[in-house]
Amino acid sequence: MNSSNPLIGRDIISISDLTQAEICAVLDQARRFEEQLKGAPIIPLLNGRILATVFYEPSTRTRLSFESAMHRLGGSVISVADARTSSSAAKGESIYDSGKMLESYADVIVQRHPAVGSARALADAADVPVINAGDGIGEHPTQALLDLYTIERERGTLDGLTVVMAGDLKHGRTVHSLAKALAHWKPKLLLCAPQALAMPDDLIAELRGQGLIVIETENMGAALAQADVVYVTRIQQERFETVEEYMRYKGIYVLTEPAVRAAKPGIVVMHPLPRVDEISPDVDRLPNAAYFRQARYGVFVRMALLAMVLGAV
Question: Does pTM top 0.85 for this prediction?
Answer without folding.
Answer: yes
